[in-house]
TrEMBL record:
<feature type="transmembrane region" description="Helical">
    <location>
        <begin position="33"/>
        <end position="50"/>
    </location>
</feature>
<keyword id="KW-1003">Cell membrane</keyword>
<feature type="transmembrane region" description="Helical">
    <location>
        <begin position="59"/>
        <end position="79"/>
    </location>
</feature>
<dbReference type="GO" id="GO:0022857">
    <property type="term" value="F:transmembrane transporter activity"/>
</dbReference>
<protein>
    <recommendedName>
        <fullName>Guanidinium exporter</fullName>
    </recommendedName>
</protein>
<dbReference type="Pfam" id="PF00893">
    <property type="entry name" value="Multi_Drug_Res"/>
</dbReference>
<dbReference type="GO" id="GO:1990961">
    <property type="term" value="P:xenobiotic detoxification by transmembrane export across the plasma membrane"/>
</dbReference>
<feature type="transmembrane region" description="Helical">
    <location>
        <begin position="85"/>
        <end position="103"/>
    </location>
</feature>
<dbReference type="InterPro" id="IPR045324">
    <property type="entry name" value="Small_multidrug_res"/>
</dbReference>
<dbReference type="GO" id="GO:0005886">
    <property type="term" value="C:plasma membrane"/>
</dbReference>
<keyword id="KW-0813">Transport</keyword>
<keyword id="KW-0812">Transmembrane</keyword>
<keyword id="KW-0472">Membrane</keyword>
<dbReference type="InterPro" id="IPR000390">
    <property type="entry name" value="Small_drug/metabolite_transptr"/>
</dbReference>
<comment type="similarity">
    <text>Belongs to the drug/metabolite transporter (DMT) superfamily. Small multidrug resistance (SMR) (TC 2.A.7.1) family. Gdx/SugE subfamily.</text>
</comment>
<dbReference type="InterPro" id="IPR037185">
    <property type="entry name" value="EmrE-like"/>
</dbReference>
<keyword id="KW-1133">Transmembrane helix</keyword>
């Protein structure tokens, strides 16, 4: 269960990272509130997951999920480049996440 919580925390990290783009420097109230709420949920879930998952593993997986999600969201919705090198780097992050999951505890 801690790994599921950590995965959901990573999804909310993606949400707040993408939300930052919509806040336009925190000048738009609606997106700013949603971004802050997403931040709080993400950090809260990370804290719960870290009760059972080692700190270094949990934090790296959490940021990795957020990074991959944010890059993919940017490619799909903001027409950011999907070059082979960029996608290979995302693949390396995914490999790191999987590796940490396989060698982590819980």
């Amino acid at each position: 269960m801690p790994w599921i919580i950590l995965f959901v925390a990573g999804l909310f990290e993606t949400g707040w990272a993408v939300g930052l783009k919509y806040t336009e420097g925190f000048t738009r109230a609606g997106p700013t509130v949603l971004t802050v709420v997403s931040m709080a949920i993400s950090l809260g879930l990370l804290g719960l997951a870290l009760r059972s998952i080692p700190l270094g593993t949990g934090y790296a997986v959490w940021t990795g999920i957020g990074t991959v999600g944010t890059v993919l969201f940017g490619i799909i919705f903001f027409s950011e480049p999907a070059t082979p090198a960029r996608l290979a780097c995302v693949g390396l992050i995914l490999a790191g996440i999987l590796g940490l999951k396989l060698v982590g505890t819980s």
